[in-house]
Task: inverse folding
């Protein structure tokens, strides 16, 4: 009869575990912040395209909303997922956030330092949304930051999964010893 393994798992505090802990904390905090900003925009302007400056902007917000929900599912279930699966999911999340941030960046004329300009300096469809400049810039910034953190998590998981170490050269591989 097999006895149950009674050893308990302990947390180890090393550079790797602290880096992953800090990364997951920042991912969760920024994901929740982006959820609030994107949800505010979608709630304020509704579900029809007439309320938005462009269809592409509304679709970019929808993509970011999906990305945020996907990210929350990853973050809340990551203690039960393997490192390999986290690696795949973090790459997928990075693609989603990078695409969403790129769409918002391309469609919205608002950039980081342009929020103090008068509304007349923006393109015609975006003039009514000039007061939303700081929120749209914050959405872009958080989406790019989440893209970067998921890329960091992806490479961290890849390096954790693949071990790089020096191996001795077997005799006879390059030459024969006589």
Result:
């Amino acid at each position: 009869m097999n006895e149950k393994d009674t050893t308990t798992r302990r947390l180890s505090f090393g550079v790797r575990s602290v880096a992953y802990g800090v990364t997951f904390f920042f991912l969760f905090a920024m994901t929740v912040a982006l959820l609030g900003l994107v949800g505010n925009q979608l709630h304020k302007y509704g579900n029809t395209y007439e309320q938005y400056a462009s269809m592409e902007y509304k679709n970019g917000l929808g993509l970011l909303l999906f990305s945020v929900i996907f990210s929350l599912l990853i973050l809340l279930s990551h203690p039960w997922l393997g490192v390999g699966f986290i690696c795949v999911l973090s790459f997928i999340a990075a693609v989603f956030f990078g695409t969403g941030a790129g769409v918002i960046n391309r469609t919205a004329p608002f950039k980081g330092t342009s929020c103090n300009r008068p509304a007349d300096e923006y393109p015609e469809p975006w003039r009514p949304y000039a007061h939303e400049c700081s929120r749209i810039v914050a959405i872009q910034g958080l989406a790019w930051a989440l893209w970067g953190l998921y890329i960091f998590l992806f490479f961290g998981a890849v390096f954790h999964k693949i071990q790089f170490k020096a191996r001795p050269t077997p005799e006879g591989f390059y030459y024969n010893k006589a």
The helical segments are 15-45, 55-77, 83-107, 133-161. The chain has a mean pLDDT of 87.
